[in-house]
Amino acid sequence: MKSKANMWKIIVYLILVILAVLSILPFYWMITTSFKTPAESIAMPPTWFPKTLTTSAYETVLTKISFPRYMYISFVTSILTVAASLLTALLAAYAFSWIQFKGRDAIFMGILSLMMVPMPVYIIPLFLVVQRLGWLDTLHVMIIPWSVSIFSIFLLRQNMRTIPKDLYDAAIIDGCSRLRFLFQIIVPLIKPAITTTVIFEFISSWNSFMWPLMVINKDNLRPIQVGLAYFAQGETTNYPALMAASTLAILPLIILFFLAQKQIIESYARTGLRE
């Protein structure tokens, strides 16, 4: 029986290793292609490692287009969007988990149901609203409409509900206000969930494409994904340059994920502990 169990364990690990390799393979191909010459990138049979390492593709990306400017715009909008959505999510999650008021659960379920509404349903009305406000071709048109995240509210609320109510009673007896209790006691206790919220909101904002494409026409205000799309139209056959641009675009996300993967796993483990 023990040998049979070990055999199944070996098979499971082998399958996991194969799936991991298949998942990493596209990234490996993207990175290695970015160091190839244009001729080698289309050579047949394909080479798995560059015969001659060259950084000309990266030089093309950094000099031919305003790539540093695109990165800067994406960093600014992503950080401000994360800050705004985190603040609103903390306040909303605190209200839905710790403050008793009539219809609280019904309102929360109504807000949660909005997650099922696909983006194409509301993106046109949202565009008309920001157009009337005169926000087109501005930075805040990419920040303010996304300053509330239902997913973040849900995740933080579920983590807040795992905190014992006795802690709140003890804090009130000591003269602690509601906001002080939130920022000085609850926030340190749900750091993994906050880290997860920050990561997912940053990735969502960084990868945003459809909305900036609709509301931004100025080249100096384009985020990285829109800038890459315009760059790809002009470099359709320069595969190393396209791969170099893609590598630079996803590099911050990969670094961010690996730095916070422990907190992400911990926050999801705590989310379902309490109904």
In one word, what is the shape?
Answer: globular
Distance between the termini: 39 Å
Succession of helices and strands: HHHHHHHHHHHHH
CATH architecture title: Orthogonal Bundle
Task: Quickly list its features.
single chain; mainly alpha; MetI-like fold; globular
If you had to describe this structure to a student in words, what would you say it looks like?
With 275 residues, the protein is mainly alpha-helical. It has a single domain (61-271), classed as Orthogonal Bundle (MetI-like fold). Helices cover 73% and strands 0% of the residues. The chain is built from 13 helices and no strands. It has helices spanning 2-34, 38-41, 56-64, 67-98, 104-113, 119-133, 150-160, 165-173, 178-189, 191-206, 210-215, 224-234, 239-271. Helix 4 runs antiparallel to helix 12 (224-234). The chain is globular. The mean pLDDT is 83.
Short description:
The protein is built from 13 helices and no strands.
Give the helices and strands, then pairings.
Elements: H1 2-34, H2 38-41, H3 56-64, H4 67-98, H5 104-113, H6 119-133, H7 150-160, H8 165-173, H9 178-189, H10 191-206, H11 210-215, H12 224-234, H13 239-271
Helix pairs in contact: 1-13, 3-13, 4-7, 4-10, 4-12, 7-10, 7-13, 10-13, 12-13
